[in-house]
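Hi R.,

Here's the chain you asked about this morning:
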Amino acid sequence: METALSGPTVVAGKIGNCYQFDGSDDYISLTGQILYDTIQGGDKPFSIAMWIYHADTTRAVLFGDYGLSGAINFNIELSTAHNVRFYWNGSPDNAPGVSSVGAATWTHIAITYSGTKLIWYKNGIEVYSVDVTLSTKTKTTGSYYLGRDSRTGSTVLNGRLNDFRLYDHCLSATEVLEIAQGLVLHLKLDDYQQYSSVLFDVRRADEWTGDGCTVEQYDANTIKMTDNGTGNRRIYHNTTNVWTLNGATYRISFKAKADTAGTILRLSRSIVDYSEDTSLTTSYISYTKYITTTTATTGGTISLQSNTANGVIYI
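And here is the predicted structure, written out as tokens:
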């Protein structure tokens, strides 16, 4: 998926940093086949979630592509009544249970589609649902937008969007609640339902802190950690209280490579000494690790550590 920014600025968000839109002409455009394949309607499930902060009470588009000619239009927006509105092919569904979304306050919203039902959530709690099978949307080119739709003008968002997530499956109520409570990215794990389905999205350098390593944004989807020879050769995620369940198994997936073949990347929990080691190559390889919490102590964050002096790892 490709992104292009037009004007939004980076400011403090509900979780880490976020983008602020000026209500005039700021937006982010999104393109790519993965995006087109995910938002299809018909019998194809999907889920969308985000934190929103609306600076006033005017109508505002959060995400969509409304304004296309001769095509199925789609929007998630705040209506003039300040309901979270899902618009698909000319048939809007307003969610009266979300009408309390107010100005100048953070609210987490999520909408899930199973193929036969739409469900709205506010701050992790279901507030509205409707039985519906959406008409099939075929989109192969063009953009979706954050902060507006295909039009310009009065529906441009004056506010902030944070932790936007799009899934190619229908999240459960439990998964939506957990997303609203933290930084967990849920996977569809048909073969691993006995595990807690947790994947850390490591692509944001500003969500990691270095301890003997520098951490920087290498490209839009990759961070780069470099040993600076001053300490523990590690970085740790800024989220606390990650390991919330004693005796639970967490599935952690990532893709990584190193400048030096054989460099060890150690994945560990910050407050107890157990870990999973991965020997990296000089090409990107996807890895999946399973960590089971075995002590009575919960909490802590996740850390990534290198064993190579002056080593460079891309994740």
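One quick note: Helices lie at 33-38, 173-181.

Cheers,
M.
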